[in-house]
Amino acid sequence: MGEKWNILTPILLFPLFIGMVIFVGYYVVSLGQLASRGGETLATNLTEFESLLAVPTASWGWIFLIAWLFFIFVYYRAKRNKIQAYFYNNILITAMILPSYYSVFYGTLFFVSSLFIRIAYWSLFVGSLGYLVKSLFLKNQSKWFPISGESIKHFKNIILLLWILNIFIRLFTNGFSSFVAKVLLATLPILPLIVVMLFTTMYRSMASTMRILYNINNDQEYYRNEFGYSVEEWYGKKSKQAKEEARNIK
């Protein structure tokens, strides 16, 4: 059963995971475009320049294929160097989710009618990418762009305030009928802000994990001895180190 599961992992589980990530990005954009073309009052038409910024449909196929092949490489690499494989795996997941992050953000812009606010959201998105790239190379992120638990709390309070303000605007301009619907609809204009916050928090955590794995990968023997793992447990049964140890024992 173990061998069957090992075979099914790269053949079924990897494509399923990649497909789910891609579907989220593709679906949100398609939903926004459909609502915009259908003349829905909740959606708006993006500018001609913004329309050019959508991820081409054909690109998703290439992303799927490249990610799948790289996952298979990492899967078999894990049998020879587990820590290095974990490091590569984190890089792959981070790179693979990035297009979906962009597409989800892009798709939510269809529900923001104000061009000025959309420009502000675009600026925030670009700023988040700059922060994420920088955070990969900083041991102390607070020196460049401090995001503490208190800062995140303030950011959430700002989102909540904007949401409540939007509710009142909708109620006083359109009346108090369908109150629940108006409360839900008030969330749409701040969706890009929520998306940026969620993905930035997630990527920040992943960047921290990658730095840890990178440091461990550069000094594996020290950490192996520190944590008390055998050579086979740490590197893998088919690793060069495990084979060398087996020859030395003989």
Which range does the strand content fall in? under 5%
Main β-sheet: number of strands, strand sense, barrel status? none
What structural class is derived from the secondary structure elements? mainly alpha
> Quick check: average pLDDT?
77
The count of domains is: 1
Overall shape = elongated
What key attributes describe this structure?
250 residues
Topology diagram in text:
Blueprint: H1 2-37, H2 48-51, H3 57-77, H4 82-108, H5 115-135, H6 149-174, H7 179-185, H8 191-218, H9 220-227, H10 231-235, H11 240-249
Helix pairs in contact: 1-3, 1-4, 3-4, 4-8, 5-8, 6-7
Describe the structure.
The protein has 250 residues and is mostly helical. The chain has one domain (2-218). 77% of the residues lie in helices and 0% in strands. It has 11 helices and no strands. The protein has helices spanning 2-37, 48-51, 57-77, 82-108, 115-135, 149-174, 179-185, 191-218, 220-227, 231-235, 240-249. It is elongated. Residues 1-5 and 141-146 have low confidence and may be disordered.
